[in-house]
Amino acid sequence: QLHSDVDKGDGSIKYILSGEGASSIFIIDENTGDIHATKRLDREEQAYYTLRAQALDRLTNKPVEPESEFVIKIQDINDNEPKFLDGPYTAGVPEMSPVGTSVVQVTATDADDPTYGNSARVVYSILQGQPYFSVEPKTGVIKTALPNMDREAKDQYLLVIQAKDMVGQNGGLSGTTSVTVTLTDVNDNPPRFPRRSYQYNVPESLPVASVVARIKAADADVGPNAEMEYKIVDGDGLGVFKISVDRDTQEGIITIQKELDFEAKTSYTLRIEAANMHIDPRFLSLGPFSDMTTVKIIVEDDDEPPVFTSRLYSMVVSEAAKIGTIIGTVAAHDPDASNSPVRYSIDRNTDLERYFNIDANSGVITTAKSLDRETNAVHNITVLAMESQNPAQIGRGYVAITILDINDNAPEFAMEYETTVCENAQPGQVIQKISAIDKDDPPNGHQFYFSLTAEAANNHNFTLQDNKDNTATVLTRRNGFRRQEQSVFYLPIFIVDSGSPSLSSTNTLTIRVCDCDADGIAQTCNAEAYILPAGLSTGALIAILACVLTLLVLVLLIVTMRRRKKEPLIFDEERDIRENIVRYDDEGGGEEDTEAFDMAALRNLNIIRDTKTRRDVTPEIQFLSRPTFKSIPDNVIFREFIWERLKEADVDPCAPPYDSLQTYAFEGNGSVAESLSSLDSISSNSDQNYDYLSDWGPRFKRLADMYGTGPDCLYS
């Protein structure tokens, strides 16, 4: 209540109120000065209101005292419950944790005034989750309450935590939240094999690196705590089998390292250990974190193909061996207990020419054709061994037959020599050095001997010198060689090898006489060069031939151009310019196009044309054979146009054959929209003024001359 000292209680004073919430939340009795609240107040929305009050004279409405300011404070009541703003919560704690291990802290807030009473003083309690967990009443920290909680028994717990104000007293407001606690894994469980022993049967034909079996030790832990390794610690299969781990499934994979043989060993026993890779020292007291099991592998007998006594047989035979010569023997046997007889054959895909045969029963390999070391020095063949009782079982043996060389090839020139001798050569001058080759391959290498044949030994032109290093030198015996007398010499050379018995051959060396320069380099070797006229060299002949060819090309071009310039069969630009449509898509520049046409012809339908007379038929006969044309009666222009075309076709020697059809169309004289062409604009009756074209520059001079009205107009 407000009261002024000036107020005598006679009603001469009235009170007014202004400021926050005046008239809307707070009102004042102007007679008594009592202030009332018009609606429920909420401290959490606004805790203070600042108001101003003044006493006025009711008659003059003037203040009787200065304006006074006062503050209304909202007193709090417990009308807000605690709230967990971050809930619900999730947390984790390792299994087997000791009592009192902190899990997570929860926090609740109360909107009431913490400075007034206990409305905002919160305490925490656990409604669900006992006896496994507890909560600190004042801090809200959740802790483990039982020891040795096992994840493998139960891995998740749901807690309900309550926060209550008024320090937990009766009448206080409360709020709750949920906390999901997950027990994380620790390595507290050793691996254990479900069985003490395992047995597996495998066929002896199982390839190397094949999987024999998969075994797995059980481990209740998960993740890295369940990772383990396997190893073979004992047994008679240490070198035959190996074990590895599948990291995805933690299984032990037993695979073969060596081929199995039922006839050699029928079973194997393995002692296998599985152990954890990551051990927690806190739980070593629970026992060793490893386990052992026994794996027995039984090898099953298979019907195996025959086996050769050697994987590769090496044999030699001379290339001079006769057909049927024994080269060697292969042997194979059936490894099975039945020991079935074996029959042999040669895989003809490896002996396409059938050089060899093999005895089906004994395995003896013989020659079937003559051999040639120079064609093939080594033959690699495959021998097949098949069981008599089961031909599907085939073993393969490999035989390398080396052909021994004999001296059966005579030596010959190493290359085709192009030997020349200069006309000015001097006696004793070297003109060629020759060598020889031999397809044979003697063990001590080649040694060749060179000489001239008996009939050439006494020639007066050339001699031969053996260099004793498998080469020989050809020298001149005289000078004064002349192409006019003899342009080519043939020198027979006798070559002998060092084989036993030795072989020889006669090779002819062709020597050409040439005109040489000062350095002894041959310039020309043809005797015919002396017979040619002095004025006609080879270059002159080539030039004459080029000129003739050029003239022929020019004649062909002229004939082709004349054929292309013949009048077309149906359309003729010179005879009917009205059928041409000229289109311009650029600004100006049209003068180049208009030069090809006579614009005056577009205004004259009666164009004088030269007629040509056909020499093969007479016009009268052609008129009788032509069909009659139906023309438009009232259109004289069109009728005249058709008859002109008809006459021209009848007398034109270049027109199509008589049974061709020529079609003409006429769109008529008039149009509702009138003509869209600009061709009429050149007439004197046109209303359009084109004088401005003269101002557009030289590119539009032709258009200005055609359509302008000046005194120098082209058609004025």
TrEMBL record:
<feature type="domain" description="Cadherin">
    <location>
        <begin position="194"/>
        <end position="308"/>
    </location>
</feature>
<dbReference type="GO" id="GO:0044331">
    <property type="term" value="P:cell-cell adhesion mediated by cadherin"/>
</dbReference>
<keyword id="KW-0165">Cleavage on pair of basic residues</keyword>
<feature type="domain" description="Cadherin">
    <location>
        <begin position="413"/>
        <end position="530"/>
    </location>
</feature>
<keyword id="KW-0479">Metal-binding</keyword>
<feature type="transmembrane region" description="Helical">
    <location>
        <begin position="530"/>
        <end position="559"/>
    </location>
</feature>
<dbReference type="GO" id="GO:0005509">
    <property type="term" value="F:calcium ion binding"/>
</dbReference>
<dbReference type="InterPro" id="IPR039808">
    <property type="entry name" value="Cadherin"/>
</dbReference>
<feature type="domain" description="Cadherin">
    <location>
        <begin position="309"/>
        <end position="413"/>
    </location>
</feature>
<dbReference type="GO" id="GO:0034332">
    <property type="term" value="P:adherens junction organization"/>
</dbReference>
<dbReference type="InterPro" id="IPR015919">
    <property type="entry name" value="Cadherin-like_sf"/>
</dbReference>
<dbReference type="GO" id="GO:0007043">
    <property type="term" value="P:cell-cell junction assembly"/>
</dbReference>
<keyword id="KW-0325">Glycoprotein</keyword>
<keyword id="KW-0472">Membrane</keyword>
<keyword id="KW-0732">Signal</keyword>
<keyword id="KW-0106">Calcium</keyword>
<dbReference type="GO" id="GO:0005912">
    <property type="term" value="C:adherens junction"/>
</dbReference>
<keyword id="KW-0130">Cell adhesion</keyword>
<protein>
    <submittedName>
        <fullName>CADH7 protein</fullName>
    </submittedName>
</protein>
<dbReference type="GO" id="GO:0016477">
    <property type="term" value="P:cell migration"/>
</dbReference>
<dbReference type="GO" id="GO:0016339">
    <property type="term" value="P:calcium-dependent cell-cell adhesion via plasma membrane cell adhesion molecules"/>
</dbReference>
<dbReference type="InterPro" id="IPR002126">
    <property type="entry name" value="Cadherin-like_dom"/>
</dbReference>
<keyword id="KW-0677">Repeat</keyword>
<keyword id="KW-0812">Transmembrane</keyword>
<dbReference type="GO" id="GO:0008013">
    <property type="term" value="F:beta-catenin binding"/>
</dbReference>
<dbReference type="GO" id="GO:0000902">
    <property type="term" value="P:cell morphogenesis"/>
</dbReference>
<keyword id="KW-1003">Cell membrane</keyword>
<feature type="domain" description="Cadherin">
    <location>
        <begin position="85"/>
        <end position="193"/>
    </location>
</feature>
<dbReference type="GO" id="GO:0016342">
    <property type="term" value="C:catenin complex"/>
</dbReference>
<comment type="function">
    <text>Cadherins are calcium-dependent cell adhesion proteins.</text>
</comment>
<dbReference type="InterPro" id="IPR000233">
    <property type="entry name" value="Cadherin_Y-type_LIR"/>
</dbReference>
<feature type="domain" description="Cadherin">
    <location>
        <begin position="4"/>
        <end position="84"/>
    </location>
</feature>
<dbReference type="Pfam" id="PF01049">
    <property type="entry name" value="CADH_Y-type_LIR"/>
</dbReference>
<keyword id="KW-1133">Transmembrane helix</keyword>
<dbReference type="InterPro" id="IPR027397">
    <property type="entry name" value="Catenin-bd_sf"/>
</dbReference>
<dbReference type="Pfam" id="PF00028">
    <property type="entry name" value="Cadherin"/>
</dbReference>
<dbReference type="GO" id="GO:0007156">
    <property type="term" value="P:homophilic cell adhesion via plasma membrane adhesion molecules"/>
</dbReference>
<dbReference type="GO" id="GO:0045296">
    <property type="term" value="F:cadherin binding"/>
</dbReference>
<dbReference type="InterPro" id="IPR020894">
    <property type="entry name" value="Cadherin_CS"/>
</dbReference>
